[in-house]
Amino acid sequence: MTETMSPHRAAYMEAMVDLAFEQGYENVTTEAIAARAGGSTADFETLFASKEVCARSLFEEHAAENMRQVRAAFDAEESWPDSLRAAAYAHARWIREHPRTMHFGVLEVLWAGEMATVLRERIISAYVEMIDAGREVAADPDSVPPLAAESIVGAIAQVMARNSTQIEELDPMAVVPEMMYLAVRPYLGEEAARAELSMPPPKS
Question: What are the pLDDT tens digits along the chain (204 aa)?
Fold first, then answer.
């Protein structure tokens, strides 16, 4: 009798993402994850101690890859806001390639326990840092509100959350100019922010 090979852990993660998108994370069971992945509950539990551990693991792995790409794009440009624009388009490309994972990270991970929330906040902090780098090139840094970057990230997150259920139908690249307008305005003023609305994507 040939032993059936258990699915790779990535298959269980993918199954969780798909089920959470379809049903909502709180309605997903380990049995459903195992069935969707073509495995078994016992096999799932040898890889992940719980549904929450699986959710945290997949969020952490995808977030790390996302940040690696975004940070590399940011660091490749010499000056802000060119660096932020490059990072924003890198993030948009990642969303376009992983729409359901992005939905999971924006909404469903909120149900995945305290550690997942901590990881999410860590990612948000990295984006805040990249936006607030604009303070270094602002004509009057003291005029920029202390929590400008946090407010911008919050506004962008609201837009992403509102559109997350339609994210497979939307092109995230198309909203980058608007997001750049929001990010640039507090640091460089209205004229520079408006220029972002017609700025082409950087060459990849």
Answer: 344 445 688 899 999 888 988 888 889 999 999 999 999 999 999 999 888 888 888 888 888 898 999 999 999 999 999 999 999 999 989 888 888 877 776 655 555 556 556 777 888 899 999 999 999 999 999 999 999 999 998 888 777 666 655 545 568 888 899 999 999 999 999 999 999 999 998 876
Q: How far is CA 189 from CA 89, 128, 137, 160, 193, in A?
A: 21, 18, 11, 24, 6
What is the widest separation between alpha-carbon atoms in the chain?
A: 74
Neighbouring C-beta atoms of residue 76, cutoff 10 Å: 13
Q: How far are the Cα atoms of 1, 92, 144, 152, 187 from residue 155, in angstroms, in the given order? A: 57, 16, 17, 5, 16
How far is 131 from 125, CA to CA, in rounded Å?
A: 10
- Following CA atoms 163, 35, 49, 12 in sequence, which dihedral angle do they give, to the nearest 10 degrees? -50
CA distances for 3 relative to 6, 22, angstroms: 9, 32
Residue 62 is which amino acid? H
Cite the DSSP H helix spans in the chain: 9-23, 30-37, 41-47, 51-76, 82-97, 99-106, 114-132, 148-163, 176-188, 190-196
